[in-house]
């Protein structure tokens, strides 16, 4: 019998080989993890670079309550911003259909005043292109519905922000606008205490951005823009006239509008831009703004909720010069018609250009208590009134417009009194929100308030 084979060597060899295999597989694992890590890092860097270049943050403040929608994808049939079909839509919307018609860029076109003005201009044959960021300061679905209404009249709204210089330049490359009706803004007096930066961004930075693009455009457009009666602030002279002092704003909103008036002066002075500021006085009507008292009073009265009615500190009634939307639209169109040309080109002034400011009010202030009683009659419902002292939130106790200047220069003459205007508003409100109970039938309401009664 031979001696058993010596296996110890083989075992050692196998152990050694398995050790080497383990080392190799660990090395392989390490190498592949490194490779994976590097690839992930590279992909992450590429993605960061891509998003930084394509989606620059418009605003750095995270407290911004109104999300900004990027313009790249348009909500209708357009393709990417700047693409051929987008340009076609922009051009088609902005082309006038009457001899010597205007080509108007309306900013804030999905807003209350902007949507009404866009329709009025389009109806008389002007070309209208809208711009709006559809922010959510109030229910954006109302803005979308206004957009739908405008689309039915061949008005296209570019979805974008005033602060997007590249977008504005592109729009002006495609269309040689004769006019800009600049209505986009952060509106509302009280919201400025919650989100002050939104006022600075839209009403100051956004306005400057727009003026920068207008000043370089060739031809330079004439600009009509919305200031506000709030610039009169703590002014006590009545009725408010354009010559009164406006250096005591009572809210940040008012301060940004006043800043706008000063900025307008500068761009007129340096670049020869024709600029007309319109000081609107509490505009109301169908398709109005849900953040305004007449609107949310209507909602709350119908829902049986309590409404706060402000009194001044000396227990007087708060009153407003409520101005009906159709009167304001006529004022805007009149201001556009008489704007006069900008004189600059290539960013250089060639001569003096018009610089104007006008009140657009109703010349007939109404106490808020009276507004509520008109609504009670129209809604056939008693309001649960809660009379309180006006908090110090930027509101002023009283507004009253003197419109002599606007009447002299473009025949502005408000013709709608509050009862007539509110009846039209309520009619729209109940139909838009599908509310029919309790509200008086249109025929009954009509017989109480004959149409067209003057202010
Ligand atoms: N309605 C009034 O009683 C009243 C009174 C005085 C002044 N104004 C001024 O009139 C103008 C129109 O007011 P309105 O009642 O129609 O308000 P609105 O809020 O209904 O309309 C403004 C529109 O501008 C858009 N917008 C806001 N910031 C923008 C931005 N940075 N870029 C692009 N779009 C932006 C909003 O989405 C909105 O659709 C505003 O300038 C407002 O300050 C209104």
Automatic annotation (TrEMBL):
One of its GO terms (cellular component) is Golgi cisterna membrane. Its EC number is 5.1.3.6. Keywords: Isomerase, Membrane, NAD, Transmembrane, Transmembrane helix. It is found in: Golgi apparatus, Golgi stack membrane. One of its GO terms (molecular function) is UDP-glucuronate 4-epimerase activity. It is a multi-pass membrane protein. Residues 104-338 form the NAD-dependent epimerase/dehydratase domain. The chain crosses the membrane at residues 35-55. The keyword 4Fe-4S does not apply. The keyword 4Fe-4S does not apply. It catalyses: UDP-alpha-D-glucuronate = UDP-alpha-D-galacturonate. It is an enzyme of class 5 (isomerase). Homodimer. Belongs to the NAD(P)-dependent epimerase/dehydratase family. This is UDP-glucuronate 4-epimerase. It comes from Tripterygium wilfordii (Thunder God vine).
């Amino acid at each position: 019998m031979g001696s058993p084979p010596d296996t110890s060597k083989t075992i050692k060899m196998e152990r050694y080989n398995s050790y080497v295999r383990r080392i190799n597989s660990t090395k392989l694992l390490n190498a592949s993890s490194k490779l994976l890590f590097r690839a992930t890092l590279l992909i992450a860097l590429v993605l960061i670079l891509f998003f930084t270049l394509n989606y620059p943050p418009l605003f750095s403040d995270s407290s911004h309550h109104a999300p900004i929608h990027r313009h790249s994808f348009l909500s209708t049939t357009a393709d990417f911003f700047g693409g051929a079909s987008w340009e076609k839509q922009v051009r088609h919307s902005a082309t006038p259909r009457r001899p010597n018609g205007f080509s108007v860029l309306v900013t804030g076109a999905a807003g209350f005043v902007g949507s009404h003005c866009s329709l009025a201009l389009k109806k008389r044959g002007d070309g209208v292109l809208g711009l709006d960021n559809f922010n959510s300061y109030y229910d954006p679905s109302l803005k979308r519905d206004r957009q739908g209404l405008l689309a039915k009249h061949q008005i296209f709204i570019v979805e974008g922000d005033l602060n997007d210089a590249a977008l504005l330049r592109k729009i002006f490359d495609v269309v040689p606008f004769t006019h800009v009706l600049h209505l986009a803004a952060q509106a509302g007096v009280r919201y400025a205490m919650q989100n002050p930066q939104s006022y600075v961004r839209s009403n100051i930075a956004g306005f400057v951005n727009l003026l920068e693009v207008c000043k370089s455009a060739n031809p330079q457009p004439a600009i009509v823009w919305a200031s506000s009666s709030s610039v009169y602030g703590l002014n006590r002279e009545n009725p408010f006239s354009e010559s009164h002092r406006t250096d005591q704003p009572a809210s940040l909103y008012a301060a940004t509008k006043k800043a706008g008036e000063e900025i307008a002066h500068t761009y007129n002075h340096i670049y020869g831009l024709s600029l007309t500021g319109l000081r609107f006085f509490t505009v109301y009507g169908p398709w109005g703004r849900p953040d305004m008292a007449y609107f949310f009073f209507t909602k709350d009265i119908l829902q049986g909720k309590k409404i706060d009615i402000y009194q001044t500190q000396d227990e007087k009634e708060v009153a407003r010069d409520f101005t009906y939307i159709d009167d304001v639209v006529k004022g805007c169109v009149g201001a556009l018609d008489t704007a006069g040309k900008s004189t600059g080109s290539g960013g250089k002034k060639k001569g003096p250009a018009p610089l104007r400011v006008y009140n657009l009010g109703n010349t007939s202030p109404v106490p808020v208590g009276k507004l509520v009683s008109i609504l009670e009659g129209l809604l056939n419902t008693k309001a649960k009134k809660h009379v309180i002292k006006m908090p110090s939130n930027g509101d002023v106790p009283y507004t009253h417009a003197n419109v002599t200047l606007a009447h002299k220069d473009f025949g502005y003459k408000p013709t709608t009194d509050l009862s007539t205007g509110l009846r039209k508003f309520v009619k729209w409100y109940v139909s838009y929100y599908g509310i029919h109970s309790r509200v008086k039938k249109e025929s009954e309401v009509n017989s109480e308030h004959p149409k067209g009664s003057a202010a």
